[in-house]
Amino acid sequence: MGTIGPTQVILIVLVVLLLFGGRKIPELMRGLGRGMKEFKDATKDEGSSGDEGAGS
Q1: What pTM was estimated for this model as a whole?
Q2: For 41, phi and psi rounded to 5 degrees?
């Protein structure tokens, strides 16, 4: 019940295309990728600095 099937994926893609248009999608994906990279970098930095403080 909680899984997403191919029909739902196609429907989501069609809705996104209708809302944003074909030209805007690459820009949105680029921004999403940058945001995810920054989030990963921030969590990695927090994890390494948090480990140093736990030992003392």
Answers
A1: 0.50
A2: -60, -40
